[in-house]
Design brief:
Elements lengths: L2 H4 L16 H10 L1 H11 L7 H5 L3 H22 L9 H5 L3 H21 L6 H19 L1 H8 L5 H4 L1
């Protein structure tokens, strides 16, 4: 076991004997998947006179670009949801590299928001500023967290294999 993995002991393991997902990882997924979350809330809203999508996106094109940017994080989120002992074996090697679609989604999302700010000649917009700060935090966390290296390199063993 590499030295960097020895610093995180059994108190960091879940019931399957693998590293628990950090809260910051789940928050990062929420930030990166916000377009899909808004879409779900808009679909669940049964009020025809309220247009939740118009609050966050001025045009349909902006919404579809946001969905495309978040698709890398969606793939990582789907693979993460299968992270248990009875998961298909072919997901294990894929899981090791799921950090990079998250980083790519965060970089593209940040570039998209900066482009939006440039379109309004960098006039201050609180929603854009908050999103930019959150995305910078997500990028910093994804690139600097040593625990995430352990988390992405760990996958639950099949209970049938151990016997």
């Amino acid at each position: 076991m590499p030295k960097r993995f020895k610093q995180f002991g059994p108190e960091y393991w879940d019931k399957y004997g693998v590293y628990r997902a950090p809260i910051a990882f789940n928050l990062s997924l929420i930030v990166l998947l916000r377009a899909y979350i808004i879409w779900i809330f808009a679909a669940a809203s049964m009020q025809p006179d309220s247009n939740i999508m118009a609050i966050f996106y001025q045009t349909k094109n902006e919404f579809f670009v946001s969905l495309a940017i978040a698709s890398g994080a969606l793939i990582a989120g789907v693979v993460y949801s299968f992270r248990r002992p009875n998961a298909p074996r072919w997901l294990k090697p894929i899981w090791r590299f799921m950090k990079w679609p998250l980083v790519a989604s965060a970089c593209l999302d940040l570039a998209w928001l900066i482009w939006h700010a440039q379109q309004v000649y960098y006039q201050f917009s609180a929603p854009i500023a908050v999103q930019i700060v959150l995305l910078i935090w997500v990028l910093w966390y994804l690139l600097k967290s040593r625990y995430l290296d352990c988390f992405f390199s760990d996958w639950p063993q099949d209970e049938k294999q151990e016997r």
